[in-house]
């Protein structure tokens, strides 16, 4: 198992677990909440078969990475990503982020530049700014996020069950594009995450990425399901083409928030088409 040290807590190393497979142009896949790097299973297979080097890792607090009590903010998440890229000394990287992972991609390009990165992909993105405010009237009200945090505090396992129902739109896709086994696998992965991290990450969803988005100056692909119940299309991806010059938007009809598994063929085709340009 491979790890990179990204800090310390009480004299103990904080380590990120990562996997690095294949050869060719490196593609770094950054997972969404509340899963881990293995959630890219169907994309990793397609990328490896197409001749790319695929790097996945578990965000701090999730998967096989360390579960510290702090560092659950996008500046720290992005510093963790930078530590991994420097550890592997990769260049000409394509950064691909799903959901929360799209925040790392956006902030990395804004803060660390493009010396190592040549392209960006935002899938089910959280940018530009999710919270409803006076200058962001199309956002989501604060009380929605307060309710999520209350549900996590009261009964995290029960919260995960309801969360995944909307994560995949199970009332529409369960039994066709999605199996009970995949749903159970996701729940098991999420239940093993740090309870503190699961709660703390909710506040990170309210990060204002508008200035970060304006600094993206590399080819960028945006992929989003038009039936997303977690990060509504109108509040997120629909706004990004006007904010990221030259970006491409691919909308997946009937796609839920997590389109990586139930709409893997559509996602993989859009991703490979973009990488080959």
TrEMBL record:
Q: Does the keyword Oxidoreductase apply?
A: yes
Answer yes or no on keyword Calcium. Answer: no
**What keyword terms does UniProt attach to this protein?**
Oxidoreductase, Peroxidase
Q: Name one GO molecular function term.
A: peroxidase activity
Q: What is this protein called?
A: Putative non-heme chloroperoxidase (Chloride peroxidase)
Any Pfam family hit: Abhydrolase_1
| Domain AB hydrolase-1 per the UniProt entry, residue ranges | 26-261
**Its family?**
Belongs to the AB hydrolase superfamily. Bacterial non-heme haloperoxidase / perhydrolase family.
The organism's superkingdom is given as: Bacteria
* Alphabetical list of InterPro entries matching this protein: AB_hydrolase, AB_hydrolase_1, AB_hydrolase_fold, Epox_hydrolase-like
């Amino acid at each position: 198992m491979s790890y990179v040290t990204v800090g310390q807590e009480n004299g103990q190393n904080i380590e990120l677990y990562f996997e690095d497979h294949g050869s060719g142009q490196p593609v770094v896949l950054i997972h969404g909440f509340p899963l881990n790097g293995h959630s890219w299973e169907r994309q990793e297979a397609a990328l490896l078969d197409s001749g790319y080097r695929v790097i996945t890792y578990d965000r701090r607090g999730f998967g096989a990475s360390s579960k510290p009590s702090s560092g659950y903010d996008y500046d720290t998440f992005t510093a963790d990503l930078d530590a991994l890229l420097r550890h592997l000394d990769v260049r000409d990287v394509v950064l691909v982020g799903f959901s929360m992972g799209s925040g790392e991609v956006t902030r990395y390009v804004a803060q660390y530049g493009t010396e190592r990165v040549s392209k960006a992909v935002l899938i089910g993105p959280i940018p530009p700014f999710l919270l409803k405010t006076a200058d962001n009237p199309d956002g989501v009200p604060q009380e929605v996020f307060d309710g999520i945090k209350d549900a996590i505090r009261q009964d995290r396992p029960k919260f995960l069950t309801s969360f995944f129902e909307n994560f995949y739109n199970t009332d529409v896709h369960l039994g066709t594009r999605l199996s009970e086994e995949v749903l159970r696998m996701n729940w098991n992965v999420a239940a093993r995450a740090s309870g503190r991290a699961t709660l703390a990450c909710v506040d990170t969803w309210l990060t204002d990425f508008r200035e970060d988005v304006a600094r993206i100056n590399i080819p960028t692909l945006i992929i989003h399901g038009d039936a997303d119940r977690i990060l509504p299309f109108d509040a997120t991806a629909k706004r990004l083409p006007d904010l990221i010059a030259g970006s491409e938007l691919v909308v997946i009809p009937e796609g839920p928030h997590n389109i990586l598994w139930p709409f893997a063929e559509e996602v993989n085709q859009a991703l490979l088409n973009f990488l080959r340009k």
